UniProtKB/TrEMBL annotation:
Domain of life: Eukaryota
Biased composition (Polar residues): 1-18
Gene source species: Poecilia formosa (Amazon molly)
One MF term in the entry's GO annotations: actin binding
UniProt-recorded name of the protein: Parvin, beta
Family: Belongs to the parvin family.
Keywords: Actin-binding, Cell adhesion, Cytoplasm, Cytoskeleton, Repeat
Location, primary (coarse class): cytoplasm
Chain intervals for the UniProt region annotation (Disordered): 1-23
Record GO biological process: actin cytoskeleton organization; establishment or maintenance of cell polarity regulating cell shape; lamellipodium assembly; substrate adhesion-dependent cell spreading
Entry annotated with the keyword Membrane: no
Amino acid sequence: RRAATRTMSLTPSASASLQPAKMKKDESFLGKLGGTLVRKKRAKEVSDLHEEGKNAINAPLLPSATEIHPEDTLLEENAERIMLDPTSRENPKFKDLVKVLIDWINSELEEERIIVKDLEEDCYDGQVLQKLFEKLSGRKLNVAEVTQSEIGQKQKLQTVLEAVNNTLRPHGWTLEWSVDSIHSKNLVAIVYLLVALAMHFQAPIRLPEHVTVQVVVVKKREGILQTAVVAKELTSTTEMMLGRFAERDAFDTLLDHAPDKLNVVKTSLITFVNKHLNKLNLEVTELESQFADGVYLILLMGLLEDYFVPLYNFFLTPESFEQKVHNVAFAFELMQDGGLKKPKARPEDVVNLNLKSTLRVLYNLFTNYKNSD
């Protein structure tokens, strides 16, 4: 009985001592629960804001497949963001253009041991663009070699783009890029910039012509997101793009102002080349197309200089663009070996059926060999 009484007397005191602890535990649990609910509520508000932005952007104007990232909807007032439409990203001509530009950059920067695989990821910080511009222009830019911070990257981009813009602006290029657009990995802006550099410095590449993409433009006006789909022409024709930089000569004047006399010039040149090619039972009727693969140019040089060109030096039946460029470039070398000045035209222009380029090359031969038998 004493033991029982002792046990019973302990029960109230133990209960009394445990009561506050249980209350504290409950209060702590409720506090944590409340904090969790608040955090979840805030997270939901942010999620709802993102979702609202997405819903605003995925309006009837846009394809349902357009991929919008949350950061694309969080714009300052009067700010805008431009995104490439996913359908354009898969456009074969656009993909071909991107591949040509990547291969060109890697070829130019081979000595730097720089390998570009993705234009957006590899060009946004300014490092590749700096090296590319320095290689093309022969100028050394005063920038830090490696920058990890966002501020440092944008400062480098600012310096690089100022040099690029000062080079391109006098030649009529519309500057479709900026520090922010390049750094935000805007692929359209990056491609615009690379196309301009390639054409200005006459890169030995063939850019796909008439490449147009659809871009999604998101603007914020009075707190409301406004969207539009706009077509952007990344490349036109090779002749039009090169026309920005080529020095005008007699052929420009002839084509622009006296097209009726063009046939007279073409007839004279056809007569000249056939006088020699007929010795091999060959005949030309179309200047721009029949010299495009370089074979007739090589054979013509051999006839004019009176030597046989070994067949292993060129492609007798070229199939690819590269093989044709090789042939025309080889013909240019033979011309220089014969004492002629280096042709103003590029081999790629002749292969691309650029009439003015072909006329310049043939006229150069005509003026030097017109009295040859």
